[in-house]
């Protein structure tokens, strides 16, 4: 149930991303069709051996450009969906560990519980703790594997977002408000910010949930368990001092402070470029 909830959450986010991307591509596709003040032109200014003044050439070039543009966001969103799903899956596994830890039962010191039943409870509690530790180590290994696969892609995406925000910001300041180009650029800016925030949010959720594990361990009735349980608990709590952090480029942690830092950096570059362009 926990993993299905995480999956539905990421699915809704991916649908939102895909909708924003398709809307933005549609805006780019409609602009040259509605622009009657200029000669017929393609949506994007790239060289093609076609004459836009001819209907057949224009249809071929228009179809080629828009099919490429519509395909690109689908590929990027597919990669984002895989990456966010794997990070969210790791967060879901941490939630499962927390749920298991809460199943550790208390062992009452009373004559009503015979020795056999008490030993069975102790044995079961030790098994639950060992299973949680093994699962936690598996989650760490899984996160390292995912980080090794996608860290370069996320790093360049986050670095490129800084430049994109600056360029779009300059474009918006030069555009006339309440125009199609203005809202198209604004929509693209919102999409890029949402994409960046989702990466940072998923990474922050993973780190926050892993930090909760030590508190959950301490909240279990460890004081009623045997010596073996207490020793294992102590080692586990020491091992869980370091939270699980997903890093882009093995350097930048995906977290909410990182998102704020990127926005500040983008705004600083934007302010410098805007001041230079106004001179």
Automatic annotation (TrEMBL):
One of its GO terms (molecular function) is odorant binding. It is found in: Cell membrane. The chain crosses the membrane at residues 74-98, 154-174, 180-202. Pfam families: 7tm_6. It is a multi-pass membrane protein. Signal peptide: none annotated. GO terms for cellular component: plasma membrane. Keywords: Cell membrane, Membrane, Olfaction, Receptor, Sensory transduction, Transducer, Transmembrane, Transmembrane helix. PANTHER family: ODORANT RECEPTOR, ODORANT RECEPTOR 19A-RELATED. This is Odorant receptor 45. It comes from the Eukaryota. GO terms for biological process: signal transduction.
């Amino acid at each position: 149930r926990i993993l299905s909830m995480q999956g539905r959450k990421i699915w809704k986010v991916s649908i939102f991303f895909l909708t924003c991307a398709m809307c933005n591509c549609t805006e780019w596709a409609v602009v040259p069709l509605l622009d009657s003040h200029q000669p017929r032109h393609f949506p994007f200014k790239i060289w093609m051996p076609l004459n836009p003044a001819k209907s057949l050439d224009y249809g071929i070039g228009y179809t080629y450009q828009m099919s490429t543009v519509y395909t690109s966001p689908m590929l990027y969103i597919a990669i984002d969906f895989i990456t966010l799903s794997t990070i969210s899956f790791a967060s879901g596994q941490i939630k499962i560990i927390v749920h298991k830890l809460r199943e550790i039962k208390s062992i009452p010191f009373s004559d009503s519980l015979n020795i056999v039943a008490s030993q069975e409870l102790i044995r079961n509690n030790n098994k639950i703790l060992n299973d949680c530790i093994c699962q936690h180590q598996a989650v760490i290994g899984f996160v390292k594997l995912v980080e090794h696969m996608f860290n370069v892609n996320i790093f360049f995406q986050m670095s490129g977002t800084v430049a994109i925000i600056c360029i779009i910001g300059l474009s918006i300041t030069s555009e006339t408000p309440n125009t199609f180009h203005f809202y198209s650029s604004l929509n693209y800016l919102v999409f890029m910010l949402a994409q960046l925030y989702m990466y940072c949010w998923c990474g922050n959720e993973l780190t926050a949930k892993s930090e909760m594990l030590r508190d959950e361990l301490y909240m279990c009735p460890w004081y009623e368990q045997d010596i073996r349980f207490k020793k294992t608990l102590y080692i586990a709590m020491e091992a869980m001092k370091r939270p699980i952090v997903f890093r882009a480029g093995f350097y930048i942690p995906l977290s909410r402070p990182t998102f704020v830092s990127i926005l500040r950096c983008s705004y600083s570059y934007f302010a410098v470029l805007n001041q230079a362009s106004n001179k």
